[in-house]
Predict the 3D structure of the following.
Amino acid sequence: MHNFDIEKPSSVSEAVAALAAEGAQALAGGQTLIPTMKQRLAAPEKLVLLSGIEELKGISASGGKLTIGAATTHAEVAADGSYPALSALAADIGDPAVRNRGTIGGSLANNDPSADYPAAVLASNAVVNTNKRAIAADDFFVGMFETALDEGEIITSVEFPLPEAASYQKIDQPASRFALVGVFVAKGANGWRVAVTGASNEGVFRWSAAEEALNGGGSLEGMAPDADGMIDDIHGSAAYRAHLVGVLTRRAVAAA
Amino acid sequence: MPADGGIGASTRRREDVRFLTGKGQYTDDINIRGQAYVHFLRSDIAHGKINNIDTSDAENMPGVIRIFTSKDFEGVGGVPCGWQVTDRFGQPMQEPKHPVLAEGKVRHVGEPIAAVVAETREQARDAAEAIIVDIEELPAVIDMKAALQDGATKVHDDLTGNLCFDWGFVEENREAVDEAIRNAAHVTTLELTNNRLVANPMEPRVAIGDYDAARDEHTLYTTSQNPHVIRLLMGAFVLGIPENKLRVIAPDVGGGFGTKIFHYQEEAFCTFAAKAVNRPVKWTSSRSEAFMSDAHGRDHVTKIELALDENGKFLAVRTDTYANMGAYLSTFAPSVPTWLHGTLMAGNYTTPLVYVNVKAVFTNTVPVDAYRGAGRPEATFQLERVIDKAARELGIDPIELRRRNFIQPDQYPYATPVALEYDTGNYPATMDKLVEIADIKGFAARKAESESRGKKRGLGIAHYIEACGIAPSNLVGQLGARAGLYESATVRVNPTGGLVVMTGSHSHGQGHETTFPQVVAEMIGIDAGMVEIVHGDTANTPMGMGTYGSRSIAVGGSAIVRATEKIIAKARKIAAHLLEASDEDIELKDGQFTVKGTDKSVAWGDVCLAAYVPHNYPLEDLEPGLEETAFYDPANFVYPAGAYACEVEVDPETGKVEIMSFCAADDFGNIINPMIVEGQVHGGLAQGIGQALLEHCVYDENGQLVSGSYMDYAMPRADDLPSFVTDTSCQTPCTHNPLGVKGCGEAGAIGAPPAVVNAVVDALADMGVTHIDMPLTPARVWSAIQAAK
Ligand SMILES: Cc1cc2nc3c(=O)[nH]c(=O)nc-3n(C[C@H](O)[C@H](O)[C@H](O)COP(=O)(O)OP(=O)(O)OC[C@H]3O[C@@H](n4cnc5c(N)ncnc54)[C@H](O)[C@@H]3O)c2cc1C
């Protein structure tokens, strides 16, 4: 790890100001960034700690919406009962140490193609709030490790409309236990949405054919997305991942 | 029995007090005044010619003390191989030089090219990044069969090809085996791989070299399973340091699993560099380095054929194996696919004819060597898989087919056609025990219940035999070992009766500090708490061979028994003198020497005191003091065996396998500490299940290590494992060692993989699946189901 400076702001505006410096980067739970720095794949000159900012923390439910502060840990989401499918997802991320440090904001900003949260955010039609705007889930995830966030922009909270029914089904990648394939289905005001993580080289995506079938009263039986563009690695072929998307979607709908 | 536990007591592990309170003293906990740190610049290319190494920028970086390349090691030996195999044609294996730092070429990802010694670890690493290495990339040799084709790129330009050796065993049986297979009523054939594994001990390797210029003495602190072997190999073959000037200390070691047997370049480097820079030099492996520099395990590709008669009697076994050696020969690499593998191919069965062919191949991968089980898991896996396949083909119950071919209890000693002589065993008994503890009768009902939930359930059986405590030395010398395989012990009695036992065995998790005192205490009839164990330091223990191959109790424990017998014999003489009786009339019981048939006695402590304060003492006949050494060279291997049953549920839609139960009925002969033995079985089973379901070290065609971290290399976790059912009540004591013990350290890792795979194949048999290569990941299981459709 290279040397770096640390700043610990106590408000979002201070954090935004600190992040304007050359080579500055936000640090939330550090569960992604610190290992990357240890491997010398990232060498920020300054880390801006989000952990001291109270306004980024906590969970509140009102008006059919669940709002989760960006610096809320996976463990806190897991312990909250207001959105059971989301809590179950959080409870299955990594191990206790990871869940006690890692945050929803960090996970979304990182947008790992195999991370769990992006599927929940996209399927739930959630809104990602930042220090300067509100970004709809459909616009937030741009591609593998890419989001709509600008340089220095901080996620402040995520707003989930509470669905009528939802479920997350995941097959673990055997080593990392990130999602080999994870499917989150949620039935909201405008019907079913199906979001898939772990499967695509482009990162999380909505499986629109399945949504159409579900919303049009059709059957999911035998359906699977095209294997083209699916991740193909030592843990599973593209064909296997495509197949799993079908299986897990059916199971998620059954469980929702 | 001693009040605090003798032989047979589940005494709690005394070493756990320090391990569990953070007071263990591991090599990385040692820091020597003035120590510098080394960082190895490792190749990120699998195969290439080194044109130039430019260290000029790096040398001027802050904190850099000195940068070493192979130029600094001219005249220094390579890391030696400790076992020479002779091929089918009577020729010695090809043996390339294994330099401390890469010479002229790099041959695997992770090979050290240069070493930076600096004031801090980070400075050493910064400077290593500033070294400019010009490497001309060559095609990587990865696939073993391709490596042996004409015109294949050579890993070593000075060798005749990539074949290290072509071994045949028993060569004289080759034609008879072919003949038997040609004429048999039924032949079952199976092609399989034994997946490459990374040992992954919890503690990565560490080495600290220290040089005392005033005394011209070297000390190496290292994470080793056998410090004397390191001293011998490094002192005599690499650095030319006489043993009286070289001390090797392996303090608390956090797991070895074989990978810490071997002598590694980093040890030689730190010892060498400490003198060169006149500072202690420390290296601590990162986990990433461990993946690409610790010797790997297994990696065999095999075709096995089993010939049977019309009644299911085994007539012959023929195997063809390609064994990956990696880029260089690690310390005991050639012994693993040969003498530790071919000799096990009779298994528990009366198969009269066996022929094993092994082609050992050089590739551009990390060297492969012994890993928990070493050769025996590879043998057992093939044999127990092909028997299962034969049972299915012939429509015979797999338990029944094994029973039909078991060596019977009245056939011992039993000479196998593959050179071993089993001294004892009772395989029908372990199988009976398994049938009971695994409730085999209830399987059909459990299967029906699983099926009602859409799951496929399978039952897998395996019966393994293994050979531990490889011996005797004169025989293994004929087989190519360049070392002896005895063990040593010195028992030092203190004046007031406490004992210190200095053993050549090395404990890196096995609990020797608890088990060995139980033996000594039982023999003398004193508390185990009066016995202390010293190990792991060449200055404080007699020349020993260390711990691997489940040899510690069978060989090291026997040496302790022999030394303790000598102590007792002398103490008896002293007691006879004190009691004014003759030696033969003296009995030792519960720590009291008594004149037979009288109430005249003297306590152990008084005898010990007399030995060191010899006022009333037969000085004309007996030296004062009470300290004895014994070297024990076993007459034969020991042969643990056991029956394992695994039940799995497979999700046919996703391919996910869940282990529902795992039962093990082992015969380890006599048992000193049942709790420790059970722990060893659990650990072995976890590793065996890890191999079967999860672990896989993967290289791509360019020789890049794809599974180079825990993000891609799957270790077994607690929730991957069922609650094990173990039983060790079947005991046929070893006939040739004084404790009647066999080894238990590797059993689980040997017996578990075939039991798991047999179970999964059983679950999917009605879908047409006949084999799946390990690890049985969801993706592989699903693919096998698709392929069978
Ligand atoms: C062993 C292990 C297992 C794991 N298993 C899983 C798993 O099963 N599933 C899964 O989904 N994840 C898993 N993770 C990843 C984990 O969830 C991380 O915590 C998460 O991806 C990143 O969150 P963090 O708070 O730790 O972010 P950090 O590591 O602190 O930051 C990650 C990135 O996000 C940026 N960032 C952080 N917060 C914000 C913000 N509020 N606004 C803008 N940018 C921000 C940082 O600058 C950085 O670039 C695992 C991690 C580990 C170490």
